[in-house]
Amino acid sequence: MAIARMAKVIIVSHCVDASDLLEALQREGICQILNADEATVSKDMPELRTAAEQPRDIEELLTRLQKSIAFLRNYAEPRKGLANVLAPRVVIDEQSYEKVTSDEQILKIVDESEQLDASIEKAKSESESLGAALDELGPWEPLQTPVEEIGQLARTICQAGLIPTGQFRQVQENIGELGGAIQQIASASNRYACLVAYLKENVSDVQKLLRSAEFEQVSFVPKTGTVGELIREHTEKLNDKQQQLQSHIETAAALAKNLLKLEILHDHYENLLEREQTRGTAPATQRTVLLEGWVKENDYKRLEKTVSRFAASSLSRVEPAEDEDIPVEIENKNYVRPFEVITRLYGMPQHFEVDPTVFLAPFFALFFALCLTDAGYGLVIIALMALLIKKIQGDKKLMWMLGICSAVTVVAGALTGGWFGNAIQQFIPGMEDKKLALWFDPLDKPMIFFVLSLALGYFQILTGLAIAFGHNLKRKDYVAAVCDQLTWLVMLNSIVLILAGKFGVAVPGWVGKMCTITALIPAAAILLFSHREGGWVGRIGMGLYNLFSTIFYLGDVLSYLRLMALGMVTAGLAMAINVVAKFAGDIPYGIGFVAMMLVLIGGHGFNMAINGLGAFVHTLRLQYVEFFPKFLIGGGKSFEPLSKEYKHIYIAKSET
């Protein structure tokens, strides 16, 4: 339940061992390797170089594999069902993985897919071109004159073209005055296919007339023969191309059965590329590679055992530099680990800070529950999370966290009487006047919810200050512990007791008066010592500002009223849905029951989804804005060990 202790290490490996050693380190996934720019040894020994050039061949092969996978996926049988959405990676065993990665013949599939891709694209392009040519020839099918005879004659010019139907009559009338003629061949949509003939000496006037009529000239060059013959010829070619295309598609569908092999190979070479890039960016001499990095203290023995298997490699511990950026990894018990999602989403703490996960976990679960306050919704979310945990691949922390929060929601809903709103009272005869709340009904006694929200908020803020106080004591920074946290803890509690005594709430009046003195002492300490840099004028000025920040704590506490607001909105909307559903159930002719069920399922599903999202987001905000700043700086660099990653497959570990 803390930030893992890190050990700085350096592994010196002979070039003959470097690749195999990196593969072993990647398989273990416990050591983060630094590149030459990050490694301290590079700064101490500037004469070192990097080990190798960029692995261009692997990058090119990966690019080819990606294109082949994308191509064959279009022709592979789709993986169906919800299971494919939740678990898109194919599960294989280690033996199958080794068999595929060691088979050099599989790369021939890449060559075949590239050739097929090119052939299919060519066939599609030629088919589209032939189809477009047939569309152009279609309007001219009645024309019996060979197309090569349309053109310039001795004294006349003959042109083929398309003219809008609305312009045809005007051109027909005007062209006669210019010694020409126009003949309609056929209609094409809202245009006529026409032949225009005119004397050469009138070419300028005729062209001007045709342009004004939006005449579109059609050229048949270099075609020969009649249009009917050309249509038959193009149709035959189009049929041949379509048959070729279909044949290529069938071949691609057969080749797509090897898609999984290419995906395995892609993931294999992705990991190989990462190893080679790690080696290529590591500092090195002419014969050795120096792998400087980090390992968790608990994993040091494993790393030592891994390196010891290589005779030409050695492992040594080194002391980190004073200003070195130590990577951070958090470790928690199983019941807290799901809440690491919240911490990682915010950003890792720095290596000298405290892991907030164990502290935020109970608050997050409780606040989420208070925002929903419905046991029925909690049970539905638990069932949904159980299904997802069973079916989904990869990291399941989020589902486990929501499941835990939903379990607390069931308890909160039972205490406040929320079972799909007031569904039990609405739809079960004899339960109309029953009070199901084991503690209080938020809609009947909202002030209890109001006080509870403020009290929980105040307690969490004090918890944040107490965490910072304890952490500073542990680091032996006693001045910060007293001046930055203890003063606020004493003063804030004194103010609360003063107000409670004044209004006679649970505290005798004399206690409140006595706390006035206990509040003045920390207030003076905040004024004088909360800012401990610079001259006294600046220190007192900042002290005044910090003392004024007491009002900000009030704002922080009031922010927790969103717990009450969201909880009551969830309950109110659920009750409204039940009322509408009951009205729908009164519809006659057997429609009422169906309508009622639709309203209940759709309404409560929407209410659960929208307020579940609101519960998550607003609870998250309370942790990030109100709680974390009291003791956490953040900005730590995550521990990222060299490890194997798989995009397309999931390797099931064998029992051996």
Descriptive report:
- This protein is α+β, with helices and mostly antiparallel strands and 656 residues long.
- Among the domains are: 136-234, 2-Layer Sandwich (Alpha-Beta Plaits); 337-426 and 447-630, no CATH class.
- Helix content is 60%, strand content 11%.
- It has 23 helices and 14 strands.
- The strands form five sheets. Strands 3-11-2-12 form a four-stranded antiparallel sheet, covered by helices on one side. It has a four-stranded antiparallel sheet with strand order 7-8-6-9. Strands 1-13 form a two-stranded antiparallel sheet.
- A hairpin with a 2-residue loop joins β7 and β8 (191-199).
- α3 (56-73) crosses α6 and α13 packs antiparallel against α23 (591-627).
Number of strand elements = 14
Strand content is: 5-15%
Give the strand order of the largest sheet, numbering strands 1, 2, ... along the chain: 3-11-2-12
Number of helices: 23
Sheet having the most strands: 4 strands, antiparallel
Low-confidence stretches: none
Q: What is the helix fraction of residues, given as a range? A: 55-70%
Distance between the termini: 31 Å
Q: What structural category characterises the helix and strand content?
A: alpha+beta
Quick check: average pLDDT? 89
Net shape: extended
From the alpha carbons, calculate the radius of gyration and give it in angstroms. Answer: 39 Å
